[in-house]
């Protein structure tokens, strides 16, 4: 009778002599190469025989202890084990011993990024990243109620270890949230740090305050939709103790309202935010924001660096730090806060062949720290028509403006035309182009790279346009014209573009389904790919306007005399609406 083969129990060293793995070892593959603690891990390789037993061992001091067992089939082995400790591992299989492999355990971590704030009734993505990268891992979003964490939504990780969790928020207010990478293949769960996240309504009043009896207007929004700047006649905060217009900042993440330039001793208005909200451009009559001081109480253009608190005067006299000798009016700023577009009746902004007098508003573009460059010079000298409607591409590579001066492009101006200059990284301008030849056009809005233009015209540039009213059109990168918005007898003027030109917001007096204010102005958003329009302002009597889309097209800011949300107490207020 052949005695049975006695295998030592798990965790007990075998009694036979230890073979020399360096001399006889075969390749041992560990999958994943760096497992998480407790994760089921596969050890595989070739054995020295077609069949037999296989033993996974870990070195402990001078001994080898058994961790798991398997079998050899067709000269190969696969052993799956939960690796709970790092160390040196090997497999004895079919009379041979594999090479030794050092196994290190991967530390787990979870991080949460929220498209803040959450919005009641609208699912937005919470992005969770769990490391080490494992596809198909369940990640939950949890909210803290009292001392208990409760799961409110979940998703699974992709090949980059990222889970995008849709969540529409709970009750209005602020709560603590975290993401948890749940136990995966035997590994322990891992939680991110908790984060306070606000849940807001949409639309939301961006100009709140106990003294909001007057108007708030001129909204501007950062590219990601977090920051909203606006002008107000009301003293919305106790820090606003004067009777002048002031610029306020609304932080959608926290719901906090702040006074942007509290030290100004006169009107501050027309704010424009950079893409990340760090830089705020504005115009002001204040005499205490510059050195040397503004002595004539003219409007000047400034840029505030909110990170440092520094304020830079943009509308300076040529070759000087002094303010220009007449009013300058802000229009736009690039996303990085580097390029500023403005108009001015000053005659000392450029040193070579300056304007002859103060009677015309000329257009300028300036790369901060550089010189102002005139946009409306003609072969005769300067335009004799006021310039309006300047707009910069988000990347600062192009500037557009409207003018009725035929000398800017002889024979191609019908009433008013839109012109564009290309802007080099150095700030130099070149290649002025008439973007709307033989078309009476105004209200330019450029896409992020400047290749698409939105504008308003009463010309019928589409066979479908039969209303004779002012409508919004797009001039595309291929130089074709596309009619935007819902068609109607009243027209749809004043389009503003998202950076990718996918969405266009505009005003309309057409009475659309769901309209509650008859023929008063409302705001619609038109999606270029589908041609669909969405009516956004449905709040009873009162006109809405001054619409502006965030760069990514996810957030709309606008002004309205309608009581769009509870708490709107001004004659005209600023609102924020999350679109997706």
Give your account of this protein's structure.
With 580 residues, this protein is mainly β. Among the domains are: 23-66 and 76-103, Immunoglobulin-like (Sandwich), CATH 2.60.40; 109-200, Immunoglobulin-like (Sandwich). The chain contains 1 helix and 47 strands. The chain is elongated. Residues 1-8 and 10-23 have low confidence and may be disordered.
What characteristic shape results from the CA principal axes? Answer: elongated
How far apart are the termini? 78 Å
Largest sheet: 8 strands, antiparallel
The assigned structural class equals: mainly beta
Residue-averaged pLDDT = 92
Instruction: Please give the CATH architecture of the domain at 109-200.
Output: Sandwich
Strand runs, count: 47
The CATH homologous superfamily of the domain at 109-200? Immunoglobulins
> What is the CATH top level name of the domain at 109-200?
Mainly Beta
Q: Fill in the CATH topology of the domain at 109-200.
A: Immunoglobulin-like
Number of helices: 1
Entry summary:
The chain is mostly beta strands and 580 residues long.
Task: Break the fold down into its secondary structure elements and pairings.
Blueprint: H1 21-24, E1 28-31, E2 39-46, E3 51-60, E4 63-73, E5 76-83, E6 87-93, E7 96-97, E8 101-103, E9 109-114, E10 118-119, E11 124-131, E12 138-145, E13 148-156, E14 162-167, E15 173-181, E16 190-191, E17 195-200, E18 204-205, E19 216-221, E20 227-232, E21 246-251, E22 256-259, E23 268-273, E24 279-284, E25 300-305, E26 311-313, E27 328-333, E28 339-344, E29 362-367, E30 372-374, E31 377-378, E32 381-382, E33 388-392, E34 398-403, E35 417-423, E36 429-434, E37 441-446, E38 453-457, E39 471-475, E40 481-484, E41 496-497, E42 503-508, E43 522-527, E44 532-535, E45 544-549, E46 555-560, E47 573-578
Parallel strand pairs: 10-17
Antiparallel strand pairs: 1-2, 2-5, 3-4, 3-6, 4-5, 6-7, 6-8, 9-11, 11-14, 12-13, 12-15, 15-16, 15-17, 18-47, 19-20, 20-21, 21-22, 23-24, 24-25, 25-26, 27-28, 28-29, 29-30, 31-32, 33-34, 34-35, 35-36, 37-38, 38-39, 39-40, 41-42, 42-43, 43-44, 45-46, 46-47
């Amino acid at each position: 009778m052949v005695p049975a083969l006695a295998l030592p129990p798990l965790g007990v060293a075998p009694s036979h002599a230890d073979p020399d793995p360096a001399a006889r070892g075969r390749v041992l593959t560990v999958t994943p190469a760096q497992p998480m603690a407790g994760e089921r891990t596969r050890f595989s390789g070739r054995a020295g025989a077609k069949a037999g037993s296989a033993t996974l061992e870990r070195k402990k001091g001078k001994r080898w202890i058994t961790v798991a067992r398997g079998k050899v089939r067709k000269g190969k082995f696969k052993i799956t084990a939960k690796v709970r400790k790092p160390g040196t591992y090997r497999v004895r299989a079919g009379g041979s011993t594999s090479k030794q492999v050092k196994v290190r355990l991967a530390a787990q971590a979870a991080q949460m990024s929220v498209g803040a704030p959450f919005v009641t009734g609208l699912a937005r993505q919470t992005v969770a990243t769990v490391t080490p990268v494992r596809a198909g891992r369940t990640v939950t979003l949890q909210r803290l109620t009292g001392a208990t964490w409760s799961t409110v939504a979940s998703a699974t990780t992709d090949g980059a270890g990222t889970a995008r969790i849709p969540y529409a928020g709970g009750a209005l207010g602020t709560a603590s949230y975290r993401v948890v990478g749940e136990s995966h293949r035997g590994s322990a769960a891992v939680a991110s740090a908790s984060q306070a996240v606000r849940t807001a309504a949409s639309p939301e009043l961006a100009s709140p305050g106990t003294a909001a009896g007057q108007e708030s207007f001129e909204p501007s929004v950062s590219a990601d939709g977090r920051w909203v700047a606006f002008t107000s006649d009301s003293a919305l905060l106790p820090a606003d103790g004067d009777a002048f217009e002031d610029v306020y900042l609304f932080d959608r993440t926290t719901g906090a309202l702040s006074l942007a330039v509290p030290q100004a001793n006169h009107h501050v208005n027309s704010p424009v935010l950079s893409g990340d909200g760090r830089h705020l451009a504005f115009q002001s009559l204040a005499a205490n924001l510059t050195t040397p001081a503004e002595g004539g109480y003219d409007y000047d253009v400034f840029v505030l660096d909110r990170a440092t608190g520094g304020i830079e005067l943009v509308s300076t006299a040529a070759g000087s730090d002094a303010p220009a000798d007449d009013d300058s009016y802000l229009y736009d700023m690039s996303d990085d806060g580097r390029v500023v577009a403005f108009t001015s009746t000053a005659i000392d902004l450029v040193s070579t062949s300056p304007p002859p007098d103060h009677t015309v508003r000329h257009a300028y573009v300036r790369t901060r720290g550089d010189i102002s460059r005139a946009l409306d010079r003609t072969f005769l000298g300067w335009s004799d028509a006021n310039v309006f409607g300047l707009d910069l591409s988000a990347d600062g590579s192009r500037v557009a403006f409207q003018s009725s001066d035929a000398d800017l492009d002889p024979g191609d101006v019908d009433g008013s035309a839109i012109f564009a200059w290309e802007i080099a990284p150095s700030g130099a301008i070149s290649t002025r182009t008439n973007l709307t030849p033989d078309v009476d056009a105004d209200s330019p809005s450029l896409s992020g790279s400047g290749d698409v233009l939105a504008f308003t015209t009463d010309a019928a540039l589409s066979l479908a346009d039969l209303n004779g009213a002012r409508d919004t059109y797009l001039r595309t990168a291929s130089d074709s014209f596309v009619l935007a918005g819902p068609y109607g007898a009243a027209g749809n003027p004043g389009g503003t573009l998202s950076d990718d030109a996918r969405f266009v917001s505009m005003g309309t007096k057409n009475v659309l389904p769901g309209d509650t204010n008859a023929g008063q102005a409302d705001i619609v958003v038109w999606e270029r790919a589908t041609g669909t329009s969405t009516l956004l302002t449905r709040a009873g009597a009162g006109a809405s306007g001054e619409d502006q889309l965030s760069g990514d097209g996810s957030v709309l800011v606008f002004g309205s005399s309608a009581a769009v949300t509870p708490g709107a107490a001004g004659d005209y207020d600023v609102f924020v609406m999350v679109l997706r």
